[in-house]
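Friendly challenge for the regulars: who can give me the structure tokens for this chain first? No prize, just bragging rights.
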Amino acid sequence: MSGPMFSLPVNEEPPELCGSYGGYQRHGRLNEEPCQPCREANAKYIREYRRQSGPLARHRADQTARRRAHQALAKRYPGEYQELFCSELAKLTDTP
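First reply, four minutes later:
Bragging rights claimed.
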């Protein structure tokens, strides 16, 4: 028999993948250093993922709900709020 029965793919980045998240992943699979456009695409993807569904997104939702509830309670019970606020502030600022 002469020659190989099959040929291995050449490690050249197809232009349509370079500069995308898929291109970044391909660099990793091939143990290559990612090019700058692929690094930027990966950073953009990760930022967007974290913004939409990461722990910070859940934290922001919790913070927003907490702030709105706090504002509503302070408006509904202004006297009690002021008394509680001053009491808690005094606990924090008092030095033993």
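The chain has one domain: 21-93. Residues 90 and 96 are 12 Å apart (CA to CA). Your move, everyone else.
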